[in-house]
């Protein structure tokens, strides 16, 4: 057995001799490593979900809403759009592939004798196609439903579910909206993490039915526009802006509507996710350093407790460098044990969290390896002081210690 093997074995035996102390000391590193892994994996999963959700809509997806952007927020009392605006966008702009108007209200509805407040949105068939809805059962609206203004609705599969139970939604379910009674014809899959599918508290009805039987007017609160793939999004935005300004008699620089490019939204959300991941990851790294301080503290205690042992080893010929290496190995082992344990626990919790949030479980093994390597460096750094103190002892002085 070589000298290095002896040093590693001695350090390992010392850690096994005090299992409770070893566990409690490594706990700080476990928590720090676990936090870094969880934050990184969830952040990567959220970023992937955003790219998949918004990227699936394509770069040619626009959202137009009434209201101007002010310093204090959004002014919502602007004149709403109407169906003439929708028809004009559909007919007069060559770069538009499809237009989907939407009218929403927050209303009380009655389901199975219970009243609840939900968002009721009137939409057409284009809305579901643009938003890439996935059906769990039933069907979505078609042009016949709109032309006949039928009292139908589409809800999410968790529409009836509570916090602790999962109640399936049958097609044909009766929902009373104000004085109208609708029947569920379609059930969509659960809402995605960023809400592009039907939400638990959202009911979709045919737009003409919403306008005539519920809202009582033909206004539109939002217009979704899908641009043609062979037209630049910037050109379509400019054409939409010019047309709406003309129809709303807007002069000057200001305007009372907003046009949002889905690609810009995706980039903004990705930047926010990256920033939050980096910020929270930095905080988690600080907890790793705190765990390193705990290692240094317990190693100093260990040096004090083993003063006589150190004196005996020095007296019979051990080199100070060997004492130094042994204590640094102990500190690094503590950190590595904590790092590996934290990585395993962090990955397990991340898998559960990703499944609960409905985001992809993406593991960057390079990040995991770097995090564990960083814990080893933390142990090395915070083990220097105790190791030097042990190596600098004078044998005669150390042997006098009881």
Written overview of the protein:
This protein has 402 residues and is an alpha+beta fold. It folds into two domains: 3-53 and 267-399, no CATH class; 79-255, no CATH class. The chain contains twelve helices and 14 strands. The protein has helices spanning 3-17, 19-57, 83-92, 125-131, 143-147, 207-215, 233-247, 262-305, 307-315, 320-357, 365-391, 395-399, and strands at 61-66, 69-70, 73-74, 81-82, 96-111, 114-123, 135-138, 152-156, 174-177, 180-188, 202-206, 219-220, 222-227, 257-261. Strands 1, 5, 6, 7, 8, 9, 10, 11, 13 and 14 form a ten-stranded mixed sheet that branches. β2 and β3 form a beta hairpin. It is elongated and about 100 Å long. The chain starts with a helix and ends with a helix. Mean pLDDT is 82; it is low at 69-75. This is Multidrug ABC transporter substrate-binding protein. Keywords: Cell membrane, Membrane, Transmembrane, Transmembrane helix. It is a multi-pass membrane protein. Residues 22-241 form the MacB-like periplasmic core domain. InterPro entries: ABC3_permease_C (IPR003838), MacB_PCD (IPR025857), Macrolide_Exporter_MacB (IPR050250).
Primary descriptors:
14 strands; transmembrane transporter activity; 402 residues; cell membrane; alpha+beta; Multidrug ABC transporter substrate-binding protein; ten-stranded mixed beta sheet; two-stranded antiparallel sheet; transmembrane helix; 2 domains; MacB_PCD; elongated
Blueprint of the fold:
Elements: H1 3-17, H2 19-57, E1 61-66, E2 69-70, E3 73-74, E4 81-82, H3 83-92, E5 96-111, E6 114-123, H4 125-131, E7 135-138, H5 143-147, E8 152-156, E9 174-177, E10 180-188, E11 202-206, H6 207-215, E12 219-220, E13 222-227, H7 233-247, E14 257-261, H8 262-305, H9 307-315, H10 320-357, H11 365-391, H12 395-399
Parallel strand pairs: 6-11, 8-10
Antiparallel strand pairs: 1-13, 1-14, 2-3, 4-12, 5-6, 5-9, 5-13, 7-10, 9-10
GO molecular function, one term: transmembrane transporter activity
Subcellular location: Cell membrane
Domain MacB-like periplasmic core: 22-241
């Amino acid at each position: 057995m070589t000298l290095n093997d002896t040093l590693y074995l001695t350090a390992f035996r010392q850690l096994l001799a005090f299992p409770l102390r070893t566990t409690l000391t490594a706990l700080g590193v476990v928590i720090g490593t676990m936090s870094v892994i969880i934050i990184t994996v969830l952040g990567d999963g959220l970023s992937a979900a955003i790219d998949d959700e918004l990227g699936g809509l394509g770069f040619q997806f626009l959202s137009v809403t009434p209201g101007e952007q002010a310093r204090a927020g959004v002014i919502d009392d602007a004149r709403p759009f109407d169906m003439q605006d929708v028809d004009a966008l559909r007919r007069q702009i060559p770069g538009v592939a499809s237009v989907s108007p939407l009218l929403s209200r927050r209303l009380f509805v009655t389901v199975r004798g219970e009243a609840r407040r939900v968002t009721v949105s009137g939409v057409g068939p284009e809305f579901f196609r643009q938003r890439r809805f996935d059906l769990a059962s039933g069907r979505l609206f078609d042009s016949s439903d709109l032309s006949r203004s039928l009292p139908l609705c589409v809800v999410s599969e968790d529409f009836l579910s509570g916090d602790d139970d999962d109640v399936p939604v049958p097609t044909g379910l009766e929902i009373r909206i104000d004085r109208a009674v609708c029947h569920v014809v379609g059930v969509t899959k659960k809402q995605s993490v960023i809400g592009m599918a039907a939400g638990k508290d959202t009911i979709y009805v045919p737009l003409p039915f919403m306008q005539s039987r519920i809202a009582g007017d033909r206004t539109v609160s939002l217009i979704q526009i899908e641009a043609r793939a062979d037209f630049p999004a910037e050109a379509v935005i400019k054409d939409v802006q010019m047309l709406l300004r003309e129809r709303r008699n807007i002069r000057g620089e200001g305007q009372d509507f907003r046009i949002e490019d889905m690609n810009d939204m995706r980039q903004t959300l990705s930047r926010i996710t990256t920033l939050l991941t980096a910020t929270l990851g930095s905080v988690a790294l600080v907890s790793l350093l705190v765990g390193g301080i705990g290692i240094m503290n317990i190693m100093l205690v260990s040096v004090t407790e083993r003063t006589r042992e150190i004196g005996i080893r020095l007296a019979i010929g051990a080199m100070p460098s060997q004492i130094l290496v042994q204590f640094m190995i102990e500190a690094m082992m503590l950190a590595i044990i904590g790092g590996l344990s934290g990585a395993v626990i962090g990955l397990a919790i991340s898998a559960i969290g990703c499944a609960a949030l409905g985001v992809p479980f993406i593991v960057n093994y390079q990040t995991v390896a770097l995090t564990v390597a960083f814990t080893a460096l933390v142990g090395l750094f915070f083990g220097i002081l105790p190791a030097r103190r042990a190596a600098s002892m004078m044998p005669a002085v150390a042997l006098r210690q009881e």
